[in-house]
Amino acid sequence: QVQLVESGGGLVQPGGSLRLSCAASGSIFRLNVMGWYRQAPGKQRELVAAITGGGATNYADSVKGRCAISRDNAKNTVYLQMNSLKSEDTAVYYCKVSVREVSGRWGEYWGQGTQVTVSS
Fold first, then answer.
1. Strand 10-12, strand 114-118: pairing
2. H helices within the chain, ranges in order?
3. H, E, C per residue of 68-79
4. Which of 39, 85, 98, 99 lies 20 to 30 Å (CA to CA) from residue 112?
5. C-alpha to C-alpha distance for 67 and 103, rounded to whole angstroms
6. Average pLDDT per block of 10 residues along the chain, 120 residues long
């Protein structure tokens, strides 16, 4: 079993910045793809950014140029730096990771979600 703990969400003014963190722990052999999704009220969950084990990244068009995903493999942690935040960025942000566990099993895990609210 693998656990994900998200942090860094909160209330921020338009134009402000936040850095979300997602730390994985448990029976981890190695982490593969790690990503961030978000879900706003009345909308479907959407991919914000993803990063492969090799460091390749992908971003939603709505956040390109404003967000940066990174990972620290030594800490089993993925980050999402968000700058120039807009009201439409308001959502619950979820971390998702693909993990090879020590048993050899591959699994996908979701974080509990962290609220990001952009408002003046």
1. parallel
2. none
3. EEEEEHHHCEEE
4. 85
5. 34
6. 96 98 96 97 96 96 97 96 98 97 96 97
